[in-house]
Amino acid sequence: MVSSPEAARFVLVTRAHLFKPTFPASKERMLGRQAVFFQQGDYHARLRRLILRAFLPEAIRRSVARIEAVALRTLHSWDGRLVNTFQEMKTYAFNVAIVSIFGKDELSYLEDLKQCYYTLEKGYNSMPINLPGTLFFRAMKARKELAHIVAKIVCSRRLRRANEANNDLLGSFMEAKEALSDDQIADNMIGVIFAARDTTASVLTWIVKYLGDNPGILQAVTVRHLSSPSIPPP
């Protein structure tokens, strides 16, 4: 484990070839061999630049209103219910990821993406036995369906991209000077959703607990939020 900027640069940049990540072959098959976290070298650096470009402050600013709408829908769905915070945060993180990756106009695919992703998640740590009825088999089937859905979204985006500017992750991948193939786009879309969901949900769960345990801080955060200028719709 490294903690200083210099050590991180040594591991990730200047001597990255000495620290190659390894994953079981079944994990690469399930998420996609061309996803960013299975790569090294120039291709990895190129993908990182494209991903970071979609999360620059200007791009995030344009997404605030849509993310707030997701948050409000999530809060309203809790009315009168006893909820599991971590599970609810996983759902929220997934919905925000879809907005950040695909933008506002692909919500018609949300439920299909969600069902396929949940099936994939259940099989991720299963024994890699690709026989009908096993978790792994169902996960691989869901992975193919996810790739098919992403391909449809990419095709739809191409048909209208001449008339629209897109600031989401899909737009970043599709507008790259060195164009990514459809398979590369699909692998990285699926990979980014998978990588972000549980870690983000864990952080959000601890934030909720911390605010609940510290009413003074919760009050200060509430006042700060309510005094902030409203964000105009995108």
UniProtKB/TrEMBL annotation:
<dbReference type="InterPro" id="IPR036396">
    <property type="entry name" value="Cyt_P450_sf"/>
</dbReference>
<dbReference type="GO" id="GO:0016709">
    <property type="term" value="F:oxidoreductase activity, acting on paired donors, with incorporation or reduction of molecular oxygen, NAD(P)H as one donor, and incorporation of one atom of oxygen"/>
</dbReference>
<dbReference type="GO" id="GO:0020037">
    <property type="term" value="F:heme binding"/>
</dbReference>
<dbReference type="GO" id="GO:0016125">
    <property type="term" value="P:sterol metabolic process"/>
</dbReference>
<dbReference type="Pfam" id="PF00067">
    <property type="entry name" value="p450"/>
</dbReference>
<keyword id="KW-0479">Metal-binding</keyword>
<keyword id="KW-0408">Iron</keyword>
<dbReference type="InterPro" id="IPR001128">
    <property type="entry name" value="Cyt_P450"/>
</dbReference>
<dbReference type="GO" id="GO:0005506">
    <property type="term" value="F:iron ion binding"/>
</dbReference>
<protein>
    <submittedName>
        <fullName>Uncharacterized protein</fullName>
    </submittedName>
</protein>
<dbReference type="GO" id="GO:0009687">
    <property type="term" value="P:abscisic acid metabolic process"/>
</dbReference>
